[in-house]
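In the lab's daily routine, each protein ends up as an entry in a very long ledger. A line of letters takes care of the sequence, but it says nothing directly about the fold. The fold becomes a row of whole numbers, each drawn from a learned catalogue of backbone shapes. The protein below has been through that process, and both of its lines are reproduced in full:
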Amino acid sequence: MAMSTTSRCVLLLFLVGLAARAASGVIDGLLPNGNFEQGPTKSQLNGSRVMSPHAIPSWEISGFVEYIESGQQLGDMILPVPEGSRAVRLGNNASIRQKLVGLTRRTYYSITFCAARTCAQAEKVRVSVVPDSGVLPIQTVYTSSGWDCYSWAFKAKHTTAWLSIDDPDAEDDPACGPLIDSVAIKALHHPSHTKTDSMLKNGDFEEGPYIFPNFPWGVLVPPITEDENSPLPEWTIMSDTKVLKFVDAEHFKVPQGKYAVELVAGRETALVQEVRTTPGRSYKMSFAVGDAGNGCQGSLVVEAYAAQGKVQVPYESQGTGGHKRAELEFAAADKVTRVVFQSMNYLMKPDGTLCGPVLDDISLVPLPKKHRRLFL
């Protein structure tokens, strides 16, 4: 039977769609078998330990790697799994790796993965895409489930690369180590500006790491000491070991758009961006401060400063959402001005996990020159 014109058109569009998908390279979302639901056969396991390097489809393993099922008991500890029913645990000298294909050279990518510690208080996870690597501390837990999702960014040097996740520390018990689940990738785009009249880039935080749609706790963004590329384009997180949280409107109250950041670590973390300015020229920065509607109650205070200007913005939170606008006017002292945001207080939700104010919709504009003398 001859194919109709309509059928031929549909087939052509389908093939064009497939070609575009292939040409686009890496697709945002879960890596192949990124949730480890496809596992080893029984013959490839010794108890829960994986005995073959290629036993977990799409992954290559080395060292003491265990294949964990949700609810599995370790001593007096029951191991949960955040999504699906399976995860892996990295013991001594253990690593998992997957080959990333279809990368675009000189493009930035963010890896999102979820992790939970089991034995040690000071467990760490190392993420590597050669030549970049970062060691992410996971001793501070930001969710009541014990699982947190972390992000880490790299710049692609080639069209293919090996992503490796491992436990950099050796424990007394070779089976001790972090649980890993749900590994995803996302291409990052560095926007020129968030608004036509704003000098700041990504001030609305609409560009950031991948957030799993079924996970209600956001994604942690590491400090520059652990990741110089930053999964939050144009912004730098200044801290020794603490993070900030990237949150979405699907699970949190967000002042504007689809995404915002929650300052969960008090004064231990600062959010920073540098912007070109004219010395002596006056500027106005405006932004939204509120709560994420996640039960974080109490006195939230965000401090913002740039050049010699500083403002503290209080917000009394009932933990049910809401925000208010704030402004800071300052005069630039140099050709480059550093804009900084911090949470002044440490707060906890009723479940004992850290929380803080939500920050969003930041813009920076020059004021008319007649304002200049007010700040000199």
About this structure: The longest strand covers residues 179-188. Confidence is low (pLDDT under 50) at residues 9-24, 372-376. The first helix runs from residue 5 to 23.
